[in-house]
Specification:
It is a single chain. By secondary structure, this protein is an alpha/beta fold. Helix content is 41%, strand content 16%. The protein has a seven-stranded parallel beta sheet. Strand 2 (33-37), helix 2 (40-46) and strand 3 form a beta-alpha-beta unit. Helix 4 runs parallel beside helix 5. The longest helix has 17 residues, at 13-29. The termini are close together.
């Protein structure tokens, strides 16, 4: 299932709500899910399908208490230990690990590399929780991240900076 998320760390809450409401309509029209990043208040107001948190945001228990059991909740991780904690967290539905490669969407965050993706794949071999690799993944790097064991990925610039974003999305999806 494809998921789309508005990612703008500097947007005001009112503008984010307006934008996410449009995103929700488009996602529903195409039978896709939409995600809200970091802001549980916004997620609650727009009835988000998914709520995504980082390590410094609300705890998963706090997010679950605010949003209930119907919202899918996931967390970003940038180490194997954090990732393992997320897999064992009963309030989370999925985990993300990265950035695999340095990326301007995660400024100042050190890349974890494909070895960490291999470790994540090994950890999830006995887990039912879905997980995603993120960070610097594009058409050229996709085979390497897949060889490391990732089956789901998060991409930003590979689509947003493509000459033809729709074609880029189709190509990346076909590689999975």
């Amino acid at each position: 299932m494809d998921i789309i998320q508005l990612r703008d760390k500097g947007i005001d809450a009112r503008k984010e709500i307006e934008a996410v409401e449009v995103l929700a309509e488009v996602a529903a029209e195409h039978g896709k899910l939409f995600s809200v990043n970091d802001r549980a208040d916004v997620a609650a107001l727009v009835d988000a399908d998914i709520f995504h948190v980082g390590q410094g945001d609300l705890t998963s228990a706090q997010a679950r208490a605010l949003l209930g059991d119907d919202v899918i909740i996931g967390r970003s991780n940038n180490s194997t230990e954090m990732f393992k904690d997320s897999l064992n967290d009963v309030h989370l539905d999925y985990a993300v690990i990265g950035p695999v490669w340095e990326t301007p969407t995660k400024p100042g965050r050190k890349a974890v590399g494909t070895e960490t993706i291999r470790q994540a794949a090994e950890l999830t071999a006995i887990s039912d929780n879905p997980w995603f690799a993120i960070g610097g993944i594009d058409e050229e790097r996709m085979p390497e991240v897949l060889r490391a064991g990732a089956q789901r990925v998060v991409v930003v610039r590979a689509i947003t900076e493509a000459r033809d974003p729709e074609e880029a999305a189709r190509l990346l999806r076909s590689m999975l």
